[in-house]
Design a protein that fits this description.
GO terms for molecular function: calcium-dependent phospholipid binding. Keywords: Repeat. Helices cover 19% and strands 30% of the residues. It has 442 residues and is of the alpha+beta class. The protein folds into three domains: 132 residues, C2 domain (Immunoglobulin-like); 66 residues, no CATH class; 231 residues, Rossmann fold (3-Layer(aba) Sandwich). The strands form six sheets. Strands 13, 14, 17, 18, 20, 21 and 22 form a seven-stranded mixed sheet that branches. Helix 2 packs across helix 7 and helix 4 packs parallel to helix 5. It is elongated, with a radius of gyration of 26 Å.
């Protein structure tokens, strides 16, 4: 899944590096190569003279891959000459983040940092992203008559700015014309502006996470166990969780994830559970960020007794109830649920098929990562096209909501490759759901 996005950049409270005037800022954008780990320049904004709170009108267009981690850096410089090199220009600060974080945040704000990674007092960068779904353009031309004269010597030097109001009430600069010097009746040059710059979109979704704790994983104290906590190399569960979590975490606004386990006897009575919170707090099963889930997983390991069978239908039905409530209470549900299941197998196949078919008309997707070397042929059957998967009763799935990936095929690949394979079908599943309900997707 790939789409083109447009970034709009602004800064606030920049440092003043000039003696007799204010800084003349410009933003330079770099993208990190995931293989070589080097930063490559991809764009520069225009330079704005004498401004410590610039709103750059030049947009930055780039390809956005949903299933990849794209690290991006924004560097601000005070430009006082016409040289293309930046070595002789004053550095005003920079920030780094993933492109997905910008896309999912609607308006991303971050303090500018020194090259030593220390925050620069009040300096701030603001970046917004929009998907370019409409490639049409408009050519506009403007002129003005009898403008006020704001200059004591000579006449005003006018220019036009066009701002778009966003759904949250904020404003984004869409275009800025050239300056017409010493003229109260200016005619600006015709200019082209994308129609996309005049409209916006919003896409927000929730994430659910499930981790398998069955006895088939083996003794967690043994190196042969899939759950063995190696101090040097994370086990396959942690590797898969980290790789996928690095991508999906940018699509949840509060970064609070309900994390559930299944296939274990849990304290205090050590009854078998297929739907227990990792933090053992049923009323508040949320973990802060992917690191919070990993920490909860590590804390749960010493007090659990791995058991069986490996039933995943309870956790699917658990998330389906949230999705059903969202769909029932809102004619245009803004939340879309993604359930990530890490498991070495499934024993309740009929119940799982029934649960998937029942959830296939709800705003949710299910990602299953098969951990270990077991035969996953039965699990692969769950990842079928529309109408292929059927419940035991014969009822067909309304739409494909499952993506299955065996982790062993990616053990020697990068984390980005695993995340890309796991999340490849999610964008299509999301858009298919909203289209099936007659809702416009952006």
């Amino acid at each position: 899944c790939v789409t083109k996005v447009e970034l709009t950049i602004a800064c606030r409270n920049l440092q003043d590096k000039d003696v007799t005037s204010k800084s003349d800022p410009m933003c330079v954008v770099h993208l990190k190569d995931p293989v070589t780990k080097t930063w490559n320049e991809i764009a520069r904004t225009e330079r704005i003279k004498n401004e410590l709170n610039p709103d750059f009108s030049k947009k930055v267009e780039m390809l956005y891959y949903f299933e990849e981690v794209q690290q991006i850096r924004f560097s601000i410089f005070d430009i006082d000459n016409t040289s293309a090199t930046l070595d002789d220009d004053d550095f005003l600060g920079e920030t780094e983040c993933s492109l997905a974080k910008i896309v999912s945040s609607k308006t991303y704000k971050s303090p500018l940092m020194t090259r030593a990674k220390k925050a620069l007092s009040k300096s701030l960068i603001i970046v917004s992203a929009e998907e370019i779904s409409d490639n049409r353009i408009a050519t506009l031309s403007f002129k003005a008559h009898k403008l006020d004269n704001k200059d004591f010597m000579g006449k005003s030097d006018p220019f036009l700015e066009f701002w778009r109001q966003n759904s949250d009430g904020t404003w984004t600069l869409a275009h800025r014309t050239e300056v017409v010097k010493n003229n109260l009746n200016p005619t600006w040059k015709p200019f082209v502006v994308p129609i996309q710059s005049l409209c916006g979109g919003d896409w927000d979704r929730k994430i659910k996470v499930g981790i398998d704790f069955p006895g088939s994983n083996g003794d967690p104290n043994s190196r042969d166990s899939l759950q063995f906590m190696d101090t040097v190399r994370p086990n396959e569960y942690l590797q898969a969780l980290s790789a996928v979590g690095a991508v999906v975490q940018d699509y949840d606004t509060d970064k609070m994830y309900p994390a559930l386990g299944f296939g274990a006897k849990i304290p205090p009575h050590y009854a078998v559970s297929h739907e227990f919170p990792l933090n053992f707090t049923p009323d508040n099963p949320y973990c802060q960020g992917i690191e919070g889930i990993i920490d909860g997983y590590k804390r749960a390991m010493p007090v659990l007794k791995f058991w069986g069978p490996t039933n995943i239908s309870p956790i699917i039905n658990h998330v389906a109830r949230f999705a059903y409530q969202a769909q029932s209470n809102d004619t245009s549900p803004s939340n879309y649920y993604i359930l990530l299941i890490l498991t070495d197998g499934i024993t309740d196949m009929d119940e799982t098929r029934q649960a998937i078919v029942g959830a296939s008309n709800l705003p949710m997707s299910i990602i299953i990562v098969g951990v270990g070397s077991a035969d996953f042929s039965a699990m692969e059957m769950l990842d079928g096209d529309d109408g292929v998967l059927r419940a035991p009763s014969g009822q067909p799935v309304a739409r494909d909501i499952v993506q299955f990936v065996p982790y062993r095929e990616y053990k020697k690949a990068s984390a980005a490759a695993l995340a890309k394979a796991v999340l490849a079908e999610v964008p299509g599943q999301v858009t298919q759901y909203y289209r099936s309900r007659g809702m416009q997707t952006k």
